Each structure stands twice: as structure tokens, then as C-alpha cells.
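User: Reviewer 2 asked us to show a designed sequence for the structure in our supplementary figure. I'm pasting the C-alpha cells here. Could you produce the per-position amino acids so we can include them in the response letter?
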């Protein structure tokens, strides 16, 4: 019997130090001490559930439950890293429910015609290095070789972090990209990710679970506005080239552009740094991030273009200079149509309505779709709150999700012929 309560309790257990890098609240960065401590505990839970475990070249923890046939593995996974001041279930819940499914199969000594691999992906959020989905890209074999050597806020480089984690950086594919590519998966049957909805739809319709039809496209940028620092007391307003005021106008322009569009198009400025950052100095520099999402690539590109055009006009108007770097572009990723049907059937077999919905949030599944067919199962979360310590799920909904996942696994077995 899937133990949803234990899955939730395990996420709670991992929600505090030493499994968080911060004393209060939850932040777990990729390859940090909290990440290592969490891997040790989860590896034990995986072993108890009948799996062998390993750390791959990208630092992902992988649990493996052998199959009885020669088919490629079914990968079940989600991410172990978190945003700052995070909720406890965004990521880990999908890992814990995968472990629960294997624990049931192992307890029944049931072997499938394919092995099951549980991946605890190390970097989905991009909260330590300015690159999201780093480790699932390595597994899917789509990590660009020409990425700059990313550096975290403390100045540690990705290579340093991998090396100090004891991950020999195999013959680098390129000078600045350690052997992350060695984590590339040889080929999988399918990828299944259970994840909290991080939105209000399921709760508003009184539903516990949802079948994800696809994941929205996202483009992320870093914008740098350069003006002229000046004395707050002597610089006349008309003569200022205030970088922060210009950035503030850009932030509101981004919001206005997105609001003018359909509800599925969103734009967010989530972080801003202002320099020199003194009360009596007119800011001379401002750097901020822009995150643009939409259900289709076309809509996402059109909204991003419109916002960046507004930024350019504001920069000209305020005599500041603007430079924009693209951080990442994740195309919209539809779930596999056959797996969607299997998931509908698995949900219906549990006597539940098969509610299909799009994911506005990004997930490793959008990367794994380069490797194999993907499916996602959404779990209701209270008021749709996420990326927030108030994130909350019920044990009952998690038990239901685990039961549906097991049914999905069995249907996948039948689909491919035992
Ligand atoms: O940004 C996202 O959508 C995901 O939480 N990383
Ligand atoms: Mn997530
Ligand atoms: Mn997240």
C-alpha cells in the first residue's frame, strides 16, 4: 500500500537543517552540504525500498529497482534542489512517491519487464548557479557544450563544486564544461514525474489529481541598466540618469505587457540588484532578471519581444544604457499523447475524474522529453501556493497519487507487453 503520509513526512524531515542550507526556512542548493546530507538519507530510503543507489556524473542520486526483462528503464523523478525560502514539497514529493511505488513492488516481490530508476535531480531551479535544469539536461544529453563557466553567488564555479563533491570531471567536453555529459542516460522507456500543481485549479474544482497535457514555454533574461551614480542631494532630478528608477519603469512595463495578454502569458521580475546601494547616492547600475512564460513558443517569444522593446524605449527616454543576456529558453513541452491516455486510464481506475491541465511551472519533464516520452501527474496543493514555506499537501492526496502512479506503471507494462 502506498504510504502517502510517509512521503509527506519525509519531505518535512528534509525541510530543515541539516537538509536545508539555511538555519531557518528551506534552501537546498545543488551540491551544497545540505544537498549531500539529503542524498545520504534518501539513498537509505531507496535501499530500504529494495533499490541499489549511485551518484551519477552530474551529482544526481539515482535509485534502481531491477526488472525481469531487457527493456530500457522507466525513470521516475523530480528535483532535490529548492528555491530560496522554499516550500517542502516542490520536487522532493515526486522523489518520495517514486520510492513509495518501488517499496510496494518490492514488498510484493514483483518485477516488471523494465527496471525503474528514481532520479533525484540535483539542479532544476537554477537557484545556485544561473542555469536551470542543469542536471536533467546532462541526463537527457542536451546540455550545451558552450555554456560559460557558471559561478554561484559566493564565487564558486560549477567545476569547483563538482570537484569538491568528489565528482571527477571526466575529460571535459569543452574547457569550461566538466564531464557532466557523462551522466547522459543510455535510453529510457518513459519518464514519469509527480509534482504539486503549484496553482489553484485542482483545489478550486475539488480535485486531488490532474493529468498534465504539457509544460509552458519559458524564456529567462538578465537585464543590466547602466546610468550615472550621483549625489542624492545635489543632482537635479532633470539631470539624473537613475538606473534604478529606469529599471523600476521597466518592471512595471513588463507587468503591463503581460497583463494585456491572455491569462496563460506571464512575466516576472524576480530579482534585482542595485548599485552602489546607498541611501544618499543616485543609483548608477541595476541588474534584474526577467522570466517570461506562455503556453506556446510563439506566444512566449512575442511577449518577450514586446517587453524587451519597451525596455529599449525606456532606456532611450531616460538616457541610460541597457544590455540584455538570454539566460535560457525552454520550449513548450507537450506530454506524450499515449502516456496521457494511460494516465487518464490510471486516474479513472482509481475512480477519479481525469482532469487534464497545462503546467505554467517548468519541470525536469520538459527536458527529459528529449530522451523519452514523458508524463506528469499533478497533486492538489493548498491555495496553489508554492515557492513559499506555506506550501502544503495532504497525505490522502499523496496516497492517491502513489496509487495512480502504480496503476500507470502497470498499464505501461501492459502497453509494452509484459
Ligand atoms: O521556474 C519554475 O517554473 C520551476 O519551479 N523551476
Ligand atoms: Mn518543481
Ligand atoms: Mn520550483
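Assistant: Here is a per-position design you can include in the supplement:
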Amino acid at each position: 500500500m502506498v504510504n502517502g503520509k510517509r512521503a509527506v513526512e519525509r519531505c518535512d524531515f528534509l525541510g530543515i537543517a541539516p537538509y536545508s542550507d539555511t538555519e531557518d526556512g528551506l534552501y537546498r542548493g545543488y551540491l551544497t552540504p545540505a544537498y549531500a546530507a539529503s542524498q545520504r538519507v534518501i539513498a537509505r530510503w531507496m535501499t530500504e525500498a529494495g533499490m541499489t543507489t549511485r551518484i551519477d556524473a552530474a551529482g544526481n542520486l539515482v535509485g534502481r529497482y531491477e526488472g525481469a526483462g531487457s527493456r530500457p528503464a522507466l525513470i521516475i523523478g523530480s528535483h532535490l534542489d529548492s528555491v530560496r525560502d522554499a516550500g517542502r514539497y516542490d520536487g522532493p514529493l515526486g522523489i518520495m512517491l517514486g520510492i513509495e511505488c518501488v517499496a510496494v513492488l518490492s514488498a510484493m516481490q514483483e518485477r516488471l519487464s523494465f527496471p525503474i530508476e528514481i532520479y533525484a535531480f540535483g539542479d532544476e531551479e537554477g537557484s545556485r548557479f544561473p542555469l536551470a535544469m542543469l542536471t536533467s539536461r546532462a541526463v537527457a544529453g542536451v546540455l550545451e557544450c558552450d555554456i560559460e563557466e557558471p559561478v554561484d553567488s559566493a564565487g564558486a564555479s560549477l567545476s569547483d563544486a563538482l570537484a569538491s563533491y568528489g565528482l571527477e570531471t571526466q575529460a571535459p567536453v569543452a574547457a569550461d564544461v566538466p564531464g557532466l555529459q557523462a551522466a547522459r542516460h543510455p535510453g529510457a522507456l518513459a519518464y514519469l514525474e509527480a509534482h504539486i500543481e503549484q496553482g489553484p485549479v485542482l483545489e478550486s474544482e475539488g480535485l486531488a489529481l490532474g493529468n498534465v497535457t504539457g509544460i509552458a514555454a519559458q524564456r529567462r533574461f538578465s537585464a543590466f541598466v547602466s546610468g550615472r551614480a550621483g549625489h542624492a542631494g545635489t543632482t537635479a532630478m532633470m539631470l539624473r540618469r537613475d538606473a534604478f528608477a529606469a529599471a523600476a519603469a521597466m518592471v512595471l512595463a513588463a507587468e503591463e505587457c503581460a497583463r494585456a495578454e491572455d491569462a496563460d502569458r506571464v512575466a516576472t521580475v524576480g530579482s534585482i540588484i542595485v548599485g552602489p546601494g546607498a541611501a544618499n547616492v543616485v543609483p548608477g547600475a541595476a541588474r534584474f532578471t526577467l522570466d517570461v512564460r506562455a503556453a506556446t513558443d510563439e506566444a512566449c517569444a512575442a511577449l518577450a519581444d514586446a517587453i524587451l522593446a519597451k525596455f529599449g524605449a525606456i532606456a532611450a527616454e531616460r538616457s541610460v544604457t541597457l544590455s540584455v543576456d538570454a539566460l535560457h529558453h525552454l520550449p513548450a513541452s507537450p506530454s506524450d499523447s499515449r502516456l496521457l491516455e494511460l494516465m487518464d486510464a490510471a486516474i479513472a481506475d482509481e475512480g477519479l475524474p481525469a482532469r487534464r491541465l497545462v503546467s505554467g511551472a517548468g519541470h525536469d519533464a520538459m527536458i527529459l522529453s528529449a530522451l523519452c516520452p514523458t508524463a506528469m501527474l499533478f497533486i492538489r496543493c493548498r491555495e496553489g501556493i508554492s515557492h513559499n514555506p506555506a506550501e502544503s499537501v495532504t497525505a490522502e492526496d499523496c496516497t492517491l497519487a502513489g496509487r495512480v502512479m502504480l496503476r500507470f506503471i502497470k498499464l505501461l507494462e501492459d502497453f509494452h507487453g509484459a
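For the response letter, you might also mention the following. The pocket of manganese (II) ion (ligand 2) is lined by residues 79, 90-91, 124, 195, 363 (CB under 6 Å). The chain has eleven helices and 16 strands.
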